[in-house]
Amino acid sequence: MSKLTLFKEYCEAIIRDGDFHEGLAPAITGLADMLYKLAEVNGNTELERKHISTESGSAIGTFWAAQCIKEIFRTQRFARGLFKAIQHVRQKHTGRPAHVLYAGTGPFATLALPAMALLTPKDVQFTMLEINPKSYKMLQYILNTLGLNSFVRHFTITDAATYKLRNDDVDIVLSETMNRALIKEPQVSIMLNLASQLSQKTIFIPEEIKVSLYQHDTNDKMGHKLDDLMVFDKKFMFELIEKCKNSEWLFEEKKLTVDLLPSTVLHYETEIKVYQSDFLKSSDCSLNFPEKLKTKDLIGRKVLKIHYTSIDIPGFRCQFLD
Ligand SMILES: C[S@@+](CC[C@H](N)C(=O)[O-])C[C@H]1O[C@@H](n2cnc3c(N)ncnc32)[C@H](O)[C@@H]1O
């Protein structure tokens, strides 16, 4: 079977309906294997492993960005969500291809590959942004080798958190530049920067990222939700853009009362609505892993003041008061 036929077969299996099916893991493994071999990614060099620090978070190195493909449900839900969103834009019969702005492609543009494999350049065009020159170079090679260049309207090495759009005919913004609890990586700044240059008609993928605070006891792993800390969706973004001028994003502080025992653990949970019926929850992938708060030696009733920051090292900052 030719490489291109195999590529299409993998991509078709990745976006097939259903949560888990027998073709899913082999398709992801097969596609990853094909891309790793083509790009010769091995993580042996410092250049491939090094992260890039920006004012709005860390852009993970080429080797780590490549690894993301192996997170089966992450790749499935994002790639399928994007594919469906493109179909929905196409149904509006605009007479032009759907235009996707893909911020943070990594070396494989993994999330866009099924759309490229199964649609035509008349259906969809991509503007691609990537900050890491090594990933950018690898992706150029991959796109050339797989004959996918006709899908690319524009591809730049740039910081997507400050990038100025060339035009506003973007139908879909796609970015997976995040970590659990929206820590460390620049998802929030990237989405806000792009949203601030686009209309509310644009589809943003993921559609919603919800970070909530949970309390549990070491004997009761399930715990209970104390509150939602941030529901990062289109409504949230456009309200913040309206409030904050000059892209200085200021996030509201929340105050919560917590009762801490020596055995109490507080943690953040992250749920992602990728697009419509595609979600990432619970232990679907590393983006959903719980993130613990530091509460060592704190006992009794406390007032917790908590707010998000998108600068330097993004994440929630908290303070416990008596
Ligand atoms: C988590 S990886 C995901 C890669 C790929 N999109 C995927 O889903 O498999 C995030 C990618 O976004 C890039 N990135 C992070 N911050 C960026 C920024 N501010 N501007 C452009 N690219 C960025 C990183 O270099 C990395 O390649």
Automatic annotation (TrEMBL):
InterPro entries, alphabetized: SAM-dependent_MTases_sf
Stated name of the protein: PRMT5 arginine-N-methyltransferase domain-containing protein
